[in-house]
Amino acid sequence: MKRIYLDNNATTQVRPEVLDAMLPFFREQFGNPSSVHWAGRAVAGAVEKGREQVAKLLNCSPAEVVFVSCGSEGDNFAIKGTVEALRDKGNHIITTKVEHPAVLNTCQALEKQGCRITYLGVDADGMIDLKELEAAITDQTILISVMWGNNETGTLFPIEEIGAIARKYKVRFHTDAVQAVGKVPVDVQKANVDLLVLSGHKIGAPKGVGAIYIRRGTKMTPLLHGGHQERNRRAGTHNVAGIVGLGVACDLAGAQLEECAAKMKRLRDKLEQGIREQVPEIKVNGHPTLRLPNTLNVSFAYIEGESLLLNLDMKGIAASSGSACTSGSLEPSHVMGAMCVDVLLAHSSTRFSLGPETTEEDIDFVLQELPAIIERLRQMSPLYNRQGKPLTCDECRVIRSV
Amino acid sequence: MYTEKVMDHFSNPRNVGEIDNADGVGEVGNASCGDIMKIFLKVEDNVIKDIKFKTFGCGAAIATSSMVTEMALGKTIDEALELTNAAVAEALDGLPAQKMHCSNLAADALHEAIKNYKETHGA
């Protein structure tokens, strides 16, 4: 069966160049870079090279890069490390309602410990209001934590403008850039970012490695205590092979950014256009233009997301859904909720996220299979009448009140 | 996540559709996860002679709807009333725990349809 992978916002395939670079560090170059002997010395340089490669992509100094295990660890470190370090300055954090759970759940945990959190809302396109952000800042505000690109809808926040606001009020600024790195230009100087988190497995490196940029001079309390690795910022033996892989992935992302982004955007737009032409009663979720070039989130009225995902999977197509039934929670996506997407449309929101390997043929195949799947599921849906005509709003309301 | 039987009923659902002039219609929904099931019955001499369903929901919701129609067809309405959501799940060789709560409403929809039949036909 043909296999088409359109779930690159969940994770990406390890790129061949990345794997080739990593393999020696599982074999002959197995030392611990903290060791002084030949085995340790042999790999210490590899860790520093990886740091330089990450720094080059972000436009910062290698000394400002700290390796972590994943995006979630990086976000936890950025937020908790700031709260601990700036405890005597204030306890107020500003974030948004559409952040990744790595940020939202961290903020909620801190709220229980006495922090005050402002969760900014978004409009129907998933965009925040900068005036609202600025108005939320108080003399107790110690951190603004706002994602660069949304993982579900791809909506891109105006990071440079937010950075300017943070600078104006001397508030620390963290951005979860896990989805943005490798897809759009990410420059920590231009964006006035103090803390930025990226994850290896979203850009063709393996799972289990990520990095946090910490602007020089930024006081942080470590999350992990132990050895003196990473200039005392993060204890724990280095994931040398992972760091090597992350470095190569960053090199590739930087070198191919423009070309890859243009290709993904062209194919993403073709998919969107094809769906619009062939499938009635859909809603594209996310900002129409300020969106990650690889991300398309569509709600298909009258059907439920998991059913669609399973049907796509039976055709070899991997995508993702904001449906409650795929998440283990009974609530549909919090991002759709914050955007005030109708609850039934939220249950059917489906994310197609392209990668550098996505081809024209992949998109053609999806456009060939998808309309029939939607039609079949709609014919099975009590929200869609048997003449194939949608129910009126009143009829839907009656059913939904059941 | 799903058993082979669940996937079989999800991929090839039995008795999908509506019945014109149905003797009983039952509809249930789960406000939390949004699943909605509607079951249509044709009853003759207290026996379910035809049964159809329409479902808005996940894989488990569609599979349980399909399975309950197979289990109820040919049964008397009193026998059908004894079918439970747990029995439907068992017939499918089990469902993931969270689906038991959010998507296994099929027997409830059947019971509603029988209740509607009894109310409208004085049975």
Word description of this protein:
The complex is a heterodimer of chains A (402) and B (123). With 402 residues, chain A is of the alpha/beta class. Chain A has 2 domains: 4-9 and 257-401, Aspartate Aminotransferase, domain 1, CATH 3.90.1150; 16-253, 3-Layer(aba) Sandwich (Aspartate Aminotransferase, domain 2). Chain A is 40% helix and 14% strand. Chain A has helices at residues 16-22, 38-58, 71-85, 101-112, 130-136, 159-168, 240-278, 305-314, 334-338, 343-347, 360-380, 393-400, and strands at 4-5, 65-68, 92-96, 116-120, 141-145, 172-176, 195-199, 210-214, 282-285, 295-300, 317-318, 320-321, 349-353. The longest helix of chain A is centred in the middle third of the chain and has 39 residues, at 240-278. Chain A is globular and about 70 Å long. The two termini of chain A are 41 Å apart. With 123 residues, chain B is an alpha+beta fold. Chain B has 6 helices and 3 strands. Chain B has helices spanning 4-11, 59-72, 77-81, 85-91, 97-102, 106-121; strands at residues 24-29, 36-44, 47-56. A 3-stranded antiparallel sheet of chain B has the order 1-2-3. The longest helix of chain B has 16 residues, at 106-121. The termini of chain B are far apart. At the A-B interface, helix 8 and helix 10 of A face helix 1, strand 1, strand 2, strand 3 and helix 2 of B. Chain A: Residues 4-364 form the Aminotransferase class V domain. Chain A: It catalyses: (sulfur carrier)-H + L-cysteine = (sulfur carrier)-SH + L-alanine. Chain A: Homodimer. Forms a heterotetramer with IscU, interacts with other sulfur acceptors. Chain A: Its EC number is 2.8.1.7. Chain A: Pathway: Cofactor biosynthesis; iron-sulfur cluster biosynthesis. Chain B: InterPro entries: NIF_FeS_clus_asmbl_NifU-like, NIF_FeS_clus_asmbl_NifU_N.
